[in-house]
Specification:
The protein has six helices and no strands. It is an all-alpha fold. The structure holds heme C (HEC).
């Protein structure tokens, strides 16, 4: 009997270390499968292009609604201008690169869509500046770009707006 003690102890130690190495292995496996899950969802984000097109169409539609409610009474129902500058039809001077000579608020160039978003989100609507959410300003500008024939397959956001140059 005296010999059983140490042998049992040895066996317990052996089992314990098996359990420990199993735990270590399974946590490695867990980490690996976690990693896999991650990259799978990243793939999903970059994913198929179709939903993006649908989303950008939705953004333009939402922008149209916002434009009609918050901008059209000064800029015209088709962005043709009135008391406020024309915003649609680049050939007829909409969204000029340089601020118009008589501009009171505009000081910066409209080189990219981001420049327009920035100006509009700070100054427009003149009767309630900054009253829309940033998402709403992106949507209104996406609508205006679309009306100007500048179409994009991706949703207008910080990144895409900075890259989207207004054709001159
Ligand atoms: C109460 C009238 C009014 C409303 C409402 C209004 N605007 Fe304006 N907007 C103006 C005026 C006036 C200017 C000229 C500002 C200046 O002198 O720099 C202007 C200028 C602009 C410009 C620059 C045009 C250019 O050629 O320099 C953009 C872009 C613009 N508005 C977008 C919008 C958007 C988008 C909305 C709705 C969210 C909106 N505005 C609502 C009166 C208005």
């Amino acid at each position: 009997m005296a010999g059983l003690g140490p042998r049992l102890e040895a066996e317990l130690i052996a089992r314990a270390s098996t359990v420990i190495s199993w735990l270590a292995l399974s946590s490695v496996a867990g980490a690996l499968s976690f990693g896999c899950g991650d990259s799978a969802s990243e793939g999903g984000d970059q994913g198929p292009r179709e939903p993006e097109i649908a989303a950008s169409g939705e953004q333009v539609l939402a922008g149209k609604d916002l434009f009609m409610r918050h901008c059209a009474h000064c800029h015209g129902g088709s962005g043709e201008g009135g008391d406020a500058p024309r915003l649609v039809d680049l050939d007829r001077g909409a969204l000029p690169l340089e601020p118009p000579a008589d501009a009171r608020l505009r000081t910066d160039e409209f080189r990219t869509a981001a420049d327009v978003v920035q100006f509009a989100s700070i100054n427009m609507p003149i009767d309630a500046p900054g009253s829309l959410s940033l998402d709403e300003y992106y949507a209104v500008v996406a609508f205006l770009l679309d009306e100007n024939g500048i179409t994009s397959e991706s949703v207008l956001d910080t990144d895409s707006a900075a890259e989207l140059e207004i054709p001159r």
